[in-house]
TrEMBL record:
Predominant cellular place of this UniProt entry's protein: nucleus
Entry's localization field: Nucleus
PROSITE patterns in the record: ZF_MATRIN
Record protein name field: RNA-binding protein 20
Keyword vocabulary terms for this entry: Metal-binding, Nucleus, Zinc, Zinc-finger
Segments forming domain Matrin-type: 37-68
Organism the protein comes from: Xenoophorus captivus
Length: 89
């Protein structure tokens, strides 16, 4: 049964042929390096540091989300401080 052993490498050679047929790289936009700048507040991902930290952090969307986050943080902090002693009693 040496036939099956020969078939396997020939298959991979065909695959290599199919890949090398295109000299121009296609669908490059689907290749994403998983490095960038992610805003946890807005759930937005930026590849450029300047765009993320300067342009995005000045945008109204980010400002609103930041205000919402800070108000929620303050509410949660206040409520936990207020309820904790009463629960302990
Ligand atoms: Zn943001």
């Amino acid at each position: 049964m040496s036939f099956t052993e020969i078939e396997a490498p020939s298959l991979s050679l065909e695959q290599d042929k199919a890949v090398s047929e295109h000299s121009i790289p296609l669908g490059v936009e689907f290749v994403e390096p998983r490095t960038g700048f992610y805003c946890k507040l807005c759930g937005l991902f930026y590849t450029n540091e300047d765009t993320a930290k300067t342009t995005h952090c000045r945008s109204t969307v980010h400002y609103r989300n930041l205000q919402k986050y800070l108000s929620q943080l303050a509410e949660n902090g206040l409520s936990s401080v207020l309820t904790e002693p009463s629960v302990a009693h």
